[in-house]
Amino acid sequence: VHIELINTGRELLLGRVLNTLQLWICRQLADLGYDVNRQACVADDGPQIQAAVRESLSRSDLVITTGGLGPTSDDLTRDWIARLLGRPLAPDPETLGRIERLFIQRRRVMPASAKIQAMVPAGARVLRNDHGTAPGLAIEVRPNPFRAEGRPSWLVLLPGPPRELRPMFTQSVIPLLLSEFPSTEKFVCCILKTTGLGESLVEEKIAGPLQKLVQDGLDLGYCARIGEVEVRLGARGGRAEKIVNEAEGIVRGLLGRLIFAAGDSSLEAVVVGALTEQGKTVALAESCTGGLIAHRLTNVPGASVVLKCGLVTYSNEAKTDLLGVQAITLSQHGAVSEPVAREMAQGARRRCGADYGLSVTGIAGPGGGSEGKPIGTVFMALADEAGTTVERHFNPYDRETFKFAASQQALDLLRRALLPFP
Amino acid sequence: VHIELINTGRELLLGRVLNTLQLWICRQLADLGYDVNRQACVADDGPQIQAAVRESLSRSDLVITTGGLGPTSDDLTRDWIARLLGRPLAPDPETLGRIERLFIQRRRVMPASAKIQAMVPAGARVLRNDHGTAPGLAIEVRPNPFRAEGRPSWLVLLPGPPRELRPMFTQSVIPLLLSEFPSTEKFVCCILKTTGLGESLVEEKIAGPLQKLVQDGLDLGYCARIGEVEVRLGARGGRAEKIVNEAEGIVRGLLGRLIFAAGDSSLEAVVVGALTEQGKTVALAESCTGGLIAHRLTNVPGASVVLKCGLVTYSNEAKTDLLGVQAITLSQHGAVSEPVAREMAQGARRRCGADYGLSVTGIAGPGGGSEGKPIGTVFMALADEAGTTVERHFNPYDRETFKFAASQQALDLLRRALLPFP
């Protein structure tokens, strides 16, 4: 199945907003074994939307567009696509009624412009929007005037707001996909997430040993993020499972504890899961990460049970007052030092009555570096009843990258303590 | 100038990673008055990269690609583009020397595969990489065999890692752009960032009054994010400044204090800026936002001076122990209530000796809602020497969206206290 995705929205081309819809839609499709062959962004401009849709229809079995179905003047997708396909628009009474009820329910006055969203091109299926006003539309283009021999395609128009698009995709688009494009080939994919080594070094360790399987059809890919390298092992066909299982065994054997998860889990989810399972709690003392570790942990449902408390202590005063770091330790070693990291972790653990105390102190920049401790230097410590471990890392990046890398290293320190065996 | 951007990387089409490069590159170009006309993602697949580049070259004055220049086996861009253009590759000694020195400097062993990155197509300019191994390449395609009448184009190949691409873009691509495509028309753009109203309502307030200016050439756009709507006012040509200034005056008159920034500033940067200017400090008591407010504030350089401390207090125990919230208040009203928000803000302020205490307590979900306080309910309070203000909001979204919306509302509560006049 050849699939293309077209995201409309000038804000995407002006660099005002990240294309989170692409991430989400591609992920959903990949998990079902469908590949997106190409993705494109075009502005909210009628002729440009038409041109992109026409090109994609000439190549694809399924074209998905996002955005441009709303009520404002730059919402043009519905109109220009109806025109491209030569299908007149007419109001759909059911949709109109639903929009009117939604405004009543939200206790808001319905602007006249909202009615435009109930216009539907002839022959289109309405995909109900349970979380907003504009419905989606699914159009079977048969014959497809833009494709060789008129081969039919499906064209699916989805609204731009993620809260509206996501449930609509799950409820309406996936069933359509499964019934119109049933998969003929088995597809198996295994993702192993690692932390602690760069992409080149991960590849150097595993690429050679996997070479034979690659020749047998293993699709081997890497994806590097800050503090994280994902290894993707995929295969299709009757032997897919065997190939992927064998590859997974090889990678696990070679990377061992560098692997923190198989599949989708984030490092913070692994940590919260392990704490929950073991009935343990953690207290945080964050200086340079500034609350990011607490934020990441609390993104995981159920974190409230295992996170005793989080203390963001930038100033020496807060380190002394809230964590009990000794003034003499601060003055002798400086706030960014092994002894201070140690006392912060111990202080957080003691102060909050947690099983683990985890601390981070470092120099995020842009100011504050010195020769012995350049910008990017960070100390982190983990205290438990047995003692305290301190690590020093060096993340010479911009401020936000530094914070994320440090949060990743600190969470991994805790993971390795919680899960000592691979 | 017709510009197209091609991002290569299977991980983008598999939905494993957000396209942050697109955001950044488009933003840089927009700020200089250049429009990106189209953006596309294709997999790390030689023929697909070739096809996409060929199509873009047939339409564009400038084509920028990202990714696929590294040392691993799925880095194919350099090779396949050299082949498309019929240009042989040869090693560039200067680049090779730089890569070797980089490995020595990082105290790492250089893998043999790293040398591939020093291969340069005939006639290409090398764009030095000061933050990584793979250099960028700029190729003047003259004549351009894919374009009508052989009209020339520039093709710029950039590495995928943002830390490498960004400085390279600033140092090498922008100067190339300015010298090869000097702008002929004045371009003025003003961005006004608002919070507190949805996109439809913002448009309803301003679209009518701006209609005349739109007819005169004002380019009016909206961009909605969680808790934020951006109004974009742009114009080109001799009267651009006059048109944009007049539009800005109208929008400011109508939206007033809903506007928190002109241009690029985030709400957290505005808050840190105002606190710094006024010599004030803030202490945070976060329950359901779980450290996100502290994280956002500490993303702003200089935040360490104004953020006295941040306390992430999920449990009742932590609220009592660290913030001094009374047990009876918790038992009578529940942790998510106006009185608890009030005591949390007052407690954080007092405990940390800050000028302001800012608190948030709410129900992020997925669990924990009740009839009177459904999931999405959040209370926030701001305490200062004059008293305490409490607000109740309702953000019935998924967990992460809820957290962001609540953090935005809380930061805005502080902003309005710091900057009471528009």
Give a quick rundown of the structure.
Two copies of one chain form a homodimer. Chain A is an alpha/beta fold and 422 residues long.
Structural features, described:
2 copies of one chain form a homodimer. With 422 residues, chain A is α/β, with parallel strands linked by helices. The first copy, chain A, is 42% helix and 24% strand. In chain A, strand 16 and strand 17 form a beta hairpin. In chain A, helix 3 (46-59) packs across helix 4 (77-85) and helix 7 runs antiparallel to helix 8. The two termini of chain A are 38 Å apart. Chains A and B meet through helix 1, helix 2, strand 2, helix 7 and strand 10 of A and helix 1, helix 2, strand 2, helix 7 and strand 10 of B.
